[in-house]
Amino acid sequence: MLLAPAPFVPALFAPALAVHDLNLLIDGAAVVDGVDFAVASGEVMALVGESGCGKSLTAHAIMRLLPDAVRQGRGRIELDGENLSALSERQMRRVRGRRISMIFQEPQAALDPLSTVGAQVAEATGLPRSQAREAVLRMLAEVGISDPARRIDQYPFELSGGMCQRVMIASALIARPAVLIADEPTTALDVTIQAQILDLLRRLAVERGTAIVLITHDMGVVADIADRVAVMYAGRIAETGDTAAIFAAPRHPYTALLLAALPRLTDVPRSRLAVIEGRVPAPAEFPPGCRFAGRCPLADDHCRAEVPPLRDVGSGHLSACWHSEAVR
Amino acid sequence: MRPRISAGIWIILALIVLFAVAALLAPWVSPHDPLRQSLLLRLRPPGSATASAGVFPLGTDDLGRDLLSRILYGARASFAVAILSVSVSLVVGTLLGLVAGWFRGWTATLIMRFVDAMLSVPAILLAVLTVAVLGPSFVTLILVLGFTRWPRYTRVAYASTLQVAALPFIAAAEMSGAGSGRILLRHVLPNIAGPLLVVATSEFGLMILFEAGLSFLGLGIQPPAPSWGSIMSAGRQYVERAWWLTVFPGLGLFTLVVCVNVLGDWLRDRLDPRSAGR
To answer: What are the helix (H) ranges across chain A?
Structure first.
């Protein structure tokens, strides 16, 4: 009845990126604990959770650029079947930006203020400047920048936030990486621009066959573009599966409460916003059992004593809850 | 919107350019050969004219050489020494500061403790000792000044690198596969150039003074080649009879260094966000 925690691998496709049993430690506390997931080419997979749940650390671990205080314990990261942990730092540098790229929350801060758009996008190509210029112009057009011939020689301060994010996307994708990690790519942008950027990512993922790992805390963004979603809580995956299935019928109390907390237009005006009571425990205070037990309406002694494994609750939909059948 | 450049700064800039052009064009604008001696024309006061040799606008020295020509050629020495020694120390100091600020840890400890040690040795004493050992020459002068003055650049480069390295675009460059060397030269260096330029400017003035000082002591530019320091040193004995030998080179030195320092202060105000109160 219990299944070992295993990544959900989409039928027919070998994953472009697979993360197996990733453990990240700060002072011995597992801030990321047994995270498993896989993304296929052309697919958008969302990693959702609140601040500090380990989603960004997971991304940094994939890039092998963890902050000094964080140490990787167990875990294996495979890119097109190749084990990245086995690569030397020199080989890993050729993976970054070429085979796995990353874009960030604040596009304006993520661009060098003293370097032109063209120079920054060209950096990942490794081409001589004259040849790179052609490629950069094409890429800028592809990410929807109007008048690329003018924009290419401009500096980041001359562009809007949305435009900067397009430049970031251009620079991340110009080398045709297999995987793009987008860490809160639209959080700093206003909603109309947000929608445009998400559409762009969606389109490029399909057209170029890029696997996208989208890191976000925004369920609205997930609903917008993700094919699949993994909900993280306190360093563990709580629930994962197809976006549609999870939104229709969450099988983990955390996901259910998270979805219930989304404000809706049909809510009575001035009614109280739904909240999840309590707060995420600090890594040093993680309980022995389910880490959500302290805030969970369904928690019992079993939950507090024993870690619930990810179990299949139907067609690739996995939930790490002892009471997944009781969730509604 | 960029703040206007004040009239004062224009004057300062004009004076510095004037000195630089005069130094550069010394062979063409000097009225006389700076090395040509004439015992008949010793210690002539400014403005004296002779039928055979022409006018000496600033007078002549104890060997009958034209003072204006010697001051013009002396400016060349000042600029050459300042430019070259600032370049050497700027490059050495900046590279060490970048490395220390980027790699941190024991690399930084090693470099920065060495900087502390260097800064606690009086530079002029170190320079005097080194020249005494190596023997005075133009190249020695550049090396001595260049390799004793780098620690200030290292401190500034180190602190600025620490700040810039924490910015998101540096992380983004790392994520896109850029190596340390590329990140430091392409992304960090341009972003820390402002404060380094300020240090370089103030050091430039200081190097002109150091050159004059060492030449005054006979450890810099060697006679008969003219240098402001050595002209004043020779004129010292005649200060009661021939005031112009010390006053004019001294005035040149004073004016140039003040101009450079004022320019440095102004640059600091413009480039340093902490002293933004204009």
So the answer is: 55-63, 89-95, 117-122, 129-142, 148-151, 161-173, 191-208, 219-225, 243-248, 253-260, 301-305
Q: How far is CA B138 from CA A271, B29, B124, B227, in A?
A: 83, 24, 16, 11
- Are B149 and B219 contacting, i.e. CB atoms less than 8 angstroms apart? no
State the alpha helices, DSSP H only, in A20-88: 55-63
CB nearest A96 (choices: B167, B176, B186) = B176
Instruction: Answer yes or no: are the C-beta atoms of B78 and B23 closer than 8 Å.
Output: yes
Suggest the residue from A57, A96, A112, A139 to mutate for an interface test with chain B (most B CBs closer than 10 A): A112
At a CB cut-off of 8 Å and minimum separation 6, what does B152 contact?
A: B89, B93, B119, B199, B203
End-to-end CA distance of chain B: 14
- How far CA A181 is from CA of A120, A162, A196, B91, B179, in Å, comes to 18, 18, 18, 38, 20
Minimum CA–CA partner of B187 in chain A? A112
Question: Which tokens go with B168?
Answer: 């998101």
Q: Would you say the ipTM is above 0.85?
A: no
Chain B environment of A95 (Cβ under 8 Å): 177
Helix (H, G, I), strand (E, B) or coil at A184: coil
**B197 contacts in chain A (CB < 8 Å):** none
Min Cα separation B175/chain A (Å): 6
CB contact at 8 A, A91 and A83 = no
CA dihedral B184, B189, B195, B196 (to 10 degrees): 100
The whole model's pTM is what? 0.84
- Strand blocks (E) in B40-189: 48-50, 54-56
**Per-residue pLDDT band at A13 (split at 50, 70, 90):** low
- Picking from A322, A314, A308, the residue whose alpha carbon sits closest to that of residue A249 is A314
Tokens of B190: 């341009």
Neighbour-count burial of B69, counting CB atoms closer than 10 A to its CB (0-12 exposed, 13-18 middle, 19+ buried):
buried
Secondary element (H or E) of residue A160: none
Cα A112 off chain centre by:
24
**CB A114 to CB B173 under 8 A?**
no
The C-alpha atoms of residue A61 and residue B203 are separated, in whole angstroms, by 45
- Which chain A positions have a beta carbon within 8 Å of B176's beta carbon? 96-97, 101-102, 123-124, 171-172
CA atoms within 13 Å, Cβ hemisphere of A228:
24
Nearest to B86 by CA among B14, B145, B13: B145
Contact predicate A87/A50, CB 8 Å: no
Nearest CA among B119, B146, B124 for reference residue B217: B124
Mean pLDDT by 10 residues, chain B (278 residues): 76 95 92 88 86 85 91 94 96 97 95 94 84 89 90 96 94 90 94 94 94 91 90 91 93 95 90 57
Average pLDDT, chain A: 89
